[in-house]
Amino acid sequence: RREASLRLPEMQRIIASREVDSPMMLWLERNREFEGLCQQSPPPLDLLRRIWWYAKWSLDHRSPDVRTAAALAFCEHLVDTPARTRLLPLMMSRNTYEGLAELIRYYSGTEGYERGLAGFVTE
Question: Of 68, 45, 103, 20, which Cα lies nearest the Cα of 4?
């Protein structure tokens, strides 16, 4: 929670909530908030990027609970909606997205993964 508070002060209401009693619950709530942010016009790209960077930090965390929560409650859902898919290239590199292939394919299938990949322009 300390790291989340430092990186995402705008989400303190979720982070400090008594109902959020585990890393999984924190990521479930953060994922719901992320979806709402993706729907805004214009989307708050700075905040969306910081949520992604916190997810990346969580994926590298020493705690298996933290890693699993970020993977299952957030990363697997990156291509759930057109708004999320459209914003992915503004939040991460193609290489980073490709590194998440196994997670995304597991939940969204190859078609979902490919749909997300199509948004990244190749040079």
Answer: 20
- Average pLDDT for 58-70: 95
* Measured CA angle at 103 (ends 101, 107), to 5 deg: 115
| Count of residues making up the chain | 123
CA pair distance 20, 87, nearest whole angstrom: 27
DSSP-H helix ranges across the chain: 2-7, 12-15, 23-39, 45-59, 64-73, 82-91, 94-99, 101-117
pLDDT at 75: 95
| Burial of residue 50, with CB atoms counted within 10 A of its CB: 0-12 exposed, 13-18 middle, 19 or more buried | middle
What is the tens place of the pLDDT at every residue in 15-41? Answer: 888 888 899 999 999 999 999 999 999
Q: Do 8 and 54 form a contact (C-beta atoms < 8 A)?
A: yes
Compute the distance between CA of residue 59 and CA of residue 38 in angstroms, rounded to an integer. Answer: 21
